[in-house]
């Protein structure tokens, strides 16, 4: 059978309205950032798990690869077909967007993989429950199946863990088309190997997540947000430990922002201004939340006052709308940087205790090697996860700089990450982007174990080929 | 080579003081509850990971099986050699009890597998940190390697998760003797499959955990404990949801105790008495903890008062010593039951919202089928995990009852668990005890995937054979 002959049986499974071919496939074959573009036989939109299973079985029988896709918001080219891969079918789960069950007493909801993250926030909130996976910017677009397949992170990880920690059960269509029903909603279950953790974060290379049981939390009634100018990253590291000791699990965000980020935001994003009357090199935004109606702002002020002189100045509010002015600065850094052209982006993590060391060392090495660069460092310091982006101040020189030196810059940054026992992909995954690079930074034995697992689950390598490994 | 010839090279690896043979092996070949007894060529006590690796390689070369062992406190015969297995070596990790690193700022500690759980509590506390794996009764005996290999649960799971959730990284000696160094201390790392979750809860059947990076939490400064008489299990379920909504993550325990438990404890344990002036059928003990110095007892009283008439009466204290009187009742249930002879024990879980349904249905079916039985139901209701033990009131009839009806009782209980999408092993694991039974309650496809993983990691089935699968 030539690949195109698959279109008729595929259409028979999902219905003619739910299969795209030719130019109509374009939006589903190009990635979120516009850097990866691939080719496919068809893009199909199954209505339910049985249809996913039937599509997978059909593809397997014809040795055609499958690219599972949700909202297609991967930042690493993980959710689009390969450029040179003609024998691929995109299986987009967006139609599978039902809430199967919300059990408020069990603090769980069972949902299909195509549910949009923003919709899950809303459904939970209606029952006075919180689904705390904090990817607010992309939440209207991304889907929970993709969030789980990439073990999504975001703002709330230091309190709630990443996507992995919010799952109790999964339903997965395996590479041979069979359906594994692991949709349990149990807090404790020690009756064998925990299979769900293999599929979470596997970026669709071991099977297609079709439904999940998610953990919910109680909704918050109090909030306090602080904007804190600190002496530097080392002070920020100590401040976080101090806050955890004194505020415990109420801390739901701890983000660091360098001066360069502010400069970009003020220049390129309308209606933004300095959070303080004077300029500061390093600012932290931190947030406390609690289910009780307590005076979190008073508590937060006390704790900040006790920290000492490594805080230059700070402001605290319990008004979310007021604080939105600060969050706007944080949330628009990527957008502001885009206005200045491309940059060499890194999504790295190190132990929280070593974040300052990472920034100091990487800044020194890069500034020494490359004159006139701008380093934009910001992110989820509470998890040791820094977004660390490099470009030329001079936008005319920038494209040349990137085309000539991207590899060297990556190597300098990743070597430091590696020496600090960090990760070159903290939350975005590997996808196509870092599939080759990871081989230089992960032990051969670990890569071998990963390949063994891949072979066990997907011996014909038909599940999202060219991603991860 | 005959098995006994292995003793010399084994001794060469670990030193003659650290290898036991003959009768000296007895305590390490018999399980915690005295129900399983096995035979081994030797019991060895390696000093470090290299020695573990060398022992495993030697055993592999000679087709001799390995039984990894920590404190040997398994309740399912998971940590002792098989009865009929002459070609087995017990690898006991108790000598590997070093704290490699405590990073208070990163809120982590890196420890060897043989560290006793109670020692970890202490080491963390000295740095104002909490290691919240709540197995207080067995903590002086059990070791962290075993806790992780069985994904231990205990009292604090509803707040902190089970052992699995307290791990950031692992070091594992694989079944071929190679050492996987996954000792990362990162909060975020999406750079490939998450291998650590395969080894956690695998009961030593995929490799030997030799070290781990554990998450720490800030130490608490406030506590409030309530003893609450409720109308029944259904009221307890609703009370838990109400408490979570109003007290959030401060809830660190929620345990339910049936009347039969109290009767046994008062009869058999010295210096215990009714928590209230009148007798109640169902009592809950719940605990709030917070890092701040807040009036948790006042808050808890308010929340309990608002719950309404399904609470018969309650008492709250913030004095841990005073509350110890209540905790003593909970902690001595197993001991008290032992005084009355053996019983048919179950360690089951269902969704929290269905705990009352489980108890009501199981009680009804069992009382109808068997006259004169005593049902002892208690446990971690906050996680949907009930210990549900059955015996005859009349101790003379009891042994006959158990020998004749254990299988029927198990079947009746597990059928209800299964219908409620629960687990027949919530926290104790499978070990030898439930290895065969699980086949009746887990989907064949899931068992097949487990066997495939086992085959991939341990093709010669030499790692803790006869356990789990």
What does the model show?
Chain A has 469 residues and is of the alpha+beta class. Helices cover 35% and strands 21% of the residues of chain A. The first copy, chain A, is built from 16 helices and 18 strands. Chain A has helices at residues 7-14, 26-29, 49-61, 117-126, 144-149, 157-160, 196-199, 233-247, 259-268, 296-307, 320-331, 333-338, 355-369, 395-419, 438-441, 444-457, and strands spanning 19-20, 42-44, 65-69, 88-92, 99-103, 108-112, 129-130, 167-173, 179-182, 208-215, 217-218, 222-230, 251-258, 282-290, 311-317, 347-349, 373-380, 385-392. In chain A, strands 15-12-14-13-17-18-16 form a 7-stranded antiparallel sheet, sandwiched between helices. A 5-stranded antiparallel sheet of chain A has the order 5-6-10-8-9. In chain A, strands 1-2-4-3 form a 4-stranded mixed sheet. In chain A, strand 5 (99-103) and strand 6 form a beta hairpin. In chain A, helix 1 runs antiparallel to helix 3, helix 8 crosses helix 10 (296-307) and helix 13 crosses helix 14 (395-419). Chain A is globular and about 70 Å long. The mean pLDDT of chain A is 95. Chains A and B meet through strand 9, strand 11, helix 8 and helix 16 of A and strand 9, strand 11, helix 8 and helix 16 of B.
Helix and strand topology:
Two copies of one chain form a homodimer.
Chain A: H1 7-14, E1 19-20, H2 26-29, E2 42-44, H3 49-61, E3 65-69, E4 88-92, E5 99-103, E6 108-112, H4 117-126, E7 129-130, H5 144-149, H6 157-160, E8 167-173, E9 179-182, H7 196-199, E10 208-215, E11 217-218, E12 222-230, H8 233-247, E13 251-258, H9 259-268, E14 282-290, H10 296-307, E15 311-317, H11 320-331, H12 333-338, E16 347-349, H13 355-369, E17 373-380, E18 385-392, H14 395-419, H15 438-441, H16 444-457
Parallel strand pairs in A: 2-4, 3-4
Antiparallel strand pairs in A: 1-2, 5-6, 6-10, 7-11, 8-9, 8-10, 12-14, 12-15, 13-14, 13-17, 16-18, 17-18
Helix pairs in contact in A: 1-3, 8-10, 8-13, 13-14
